[in-house]
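The records we work with from here on pair a chain with its fold. Here is one such record, which you should read through line by line:
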Amino acid sequence: MFDHFGITVRDFDRARQFYDAALAPLGSSFLVQVPGEYTNGVKVGGYGQTGPAFWLTEGDAQKPIVHIAFAAKTRAEVDAFYAAAMAAGGTDNGKPGLRPHYHATYYGAFVLDPDGNNIEAVCHAPE
C-alpha cells in the first residue's frame, strides 16, 4: 500500500543515531541524505533495505506522535530491535512478547523514539 512515508524530528542527528541502531536488526539502514540545496538547508534522509521507504525531516517534532510498526522476519529480530533501540536511548513502551489480543502469533516490541513516537517491530510468523 505505501511506497514511502516520513516523520519530522526535533534533532535530526539524534534521531538518526536512534534509527541507525533500531532499524539495523531489521535489515534497514540509512540510504540517502538529500543535499541541503534541495531542502532549503533542512536535514532530510531516508532509510530502507533496497531504497528509501522511511524518511526523517528535521523540524518541529511530529504532533501528534505517531505509531509506526516495522516488519521483522523473525522473533529474534524483534528482540534485537528492542535491545538496540533501548541501548540507543529509546524508552520502553512494551517489551518483546506475544500479543494474542491482536492474533495468536503476533510478536511485537514497542519503544518510544527520542521525540516520543511509538516505534514497533512486529513478526507474524508462528515461531
